[in-house]
Design goal:
alpha/beta, eight-stranded mixed sheet, 15 helices, globular, six-stranded antiparallel sheet
């Protein structure tokens, strides 16, 4: 059995967290590949190392001294080294970084040093082999990953009987230049490594014990989700539930490798298991109808009504092309007979709303055109919903009982999710209504 484990920034924020990481890795011999983020925040007043490195880059770009910021980073790493009794020559490492960026600033190189230095220290602390991500994570020039080259290089760096520590978040282009991923990219690094070594599970260690049914800022102590499918996760993350980087799913999903979200501060918690298919486990322990509830505020609905438009070939395509011309991403397109609604994020149309409306009026001469903003979209996700007749009707009834007006409702054909649009001011009340009715009552 091979496990790939990734530790987020909060898991390596200080020496105490490093000790927790060592205990976790040592407790399971199958944890052979360790991916780490850069040191995160120790407290609300602290700063993530990656944020500080980006700030250094901005100072250099505008000709402002970055010394005070860089010294904060040095102090953090030197403090961890001293407390753990490590021998890594950080002074030389920091001098090299300063030399490189003073000669020719490469922002990707600079911000990748957080992961690099954290991994160097963690490898020494775990008595593991350090492998630089630039030596095993390879991009093609189009930004995609060169999986064959990644697999071949990783095999060359393996040492029998030794664990391997790899920094997350960055890799190298074909010419050897450092390239970073989007924020949270260490999740992707772990997923890529899990793919090429055919891991039995990819453990993603963070500061939460897996996914929660609802946002704890809205629901006090929400129930934890024991297992969730990749499709459910995609639905929830798209609507705002962010524990795992979206792109981290695809490399492991292609090989049916489960992801286990775990809590570094509570390693005894089983966390949430993300799987392609939960049917075997569900047969033993049937899931709730609702797996998760998530959502976001501040959407705008633009509705076009025109008689006989539903019979006009290409009407919807021409309508959506107008939004595409203004580079506006569409969230949802509810349709009834001769009425087409387009839901977009309000911030996406703030600068071009009236231009879009003008084009719609000119090209379609609609019978009616309405704009509604201050809309919140709520996604109710659950693979168990298709087993319960009339779920949409139950939602409508529950909202009516709480005097919550529904502006939009749509359901996927696979009955995996139902999206409901309500006014921003009803967002929290709507989530409470769903949670109380479908989670709290089910747990009684």
């Amino acid at each position: 059995m091979i496990k790939v484990v990734k530790f987020g920034g909060s898991s390596v924020a200080n020496a105490a967290q490093f000790r927790k990481v060592r205990n976790i890795v040592a407790s399971d011999e199958s944890r052979k590949f360790i991916i780490t983020s850069a040191c995160g925040k120790e407290s609300h007043e602290d700063h993530k190392v990656t944020d500080l490195l980006y700030l250094c880059a901005a100072h250099i770009k505008y000709g402002v001294s970055y010394d005070s910021i860089f010294e904060m980073i040095e102090k953090k790493y030197l403090g961890i080294r001293e407390e753990l009794g490590l021998k890594l020559d950080l002074e030389t490492e920091f001098a090299k970084i300063r030399e490189v960026i003073n000669r020719d600033l490469n922002t990707d190189y600079l911000v990748s040093r957080g992961e690099y230095l954290t991994a160097r220290m963690l490898a020494e602390y775990l008595n593991a082999v350090f492998v630089d991500a630039s030596d095993v994570i390879f991009f093609k020039y189009d930004g995609s990953f060169d999986m064959e080259r990644i697999a071949a290089s990783l095999r060359q760096h393996m040492v029998p009987g030794r664990k391997i520590v790899i920094p997350g978040f960055y890799g190298a282009l074909p010419n050897g230049v450092i390239k970073v991923m989007s924020r949270g990219g260490s999740d992707i690094t772990g997923s890529l490594i899990a793919n090429v070594v055919d891991a039995s599970v990819y453990e993603n260690w963070t500061d939460v014990s897996g996914f929660l049914v609802a946002d704890p800022r809205i629901i006090d102590n929400p129930v934890q989700i024991p297992r969730i499918t990749y499709n459910e996760l995609r639905e929830m993350s798209y609507m705002g539930a962010n524990v795992l980087h979206d792109d981290a799913v695809f490399p492991v999903r292609s090989k049916n490798i489960p992801i286990n979200i775990r809590n570094t501060n509570r390693p005894e918690d089983p966390g949430t298991m993300i799987m392609n298919d939960c049917s075997k486990q569900d047969a033993i322990e049937p899931p709730h109808a609702v797996t998760g509830i998530t959502g976001r505020k501040d959407f705008t609905v633009i509705t076009v009504a025109k008689s006989h438009s539903s019979a006009e070939v290409g009407f919807l395509r021409k309508m959506l092309t107008i939004f595409e011309d203004y580079h506006v991403s569409i969230e949802s397109v509810p349709i009834t007979v001769d009425t087409f609604s387009v839901i977009v994020q309000t911030k996406a149309v703030e600068q071009c709303l009236y231009e879009i409306v003008g084009r719609l009026k000119k090209e379609f001469e609609p019978d009616d055109l309405r704009i509604e903003d201050h809309l919140a979209m709520i996604a109710v996700v659950g693979r168990g919903m298709k087993q319960v007749p009339g779920m949409s009707g139950q939602f409508l009834s529950e909202f009516g009982r709480h005097h919550i007006n529904i502006k939009v409702i749509s359901q996927t054909s696979d009955e995996l999710s139902i999206e409901v649009g309500v006014e921003n001011r009803d967002f929290e009340a709507a989530i409470h209504a769903i949670y109380d009715r479908f989670i709290m009552e089910a747990n009684k």
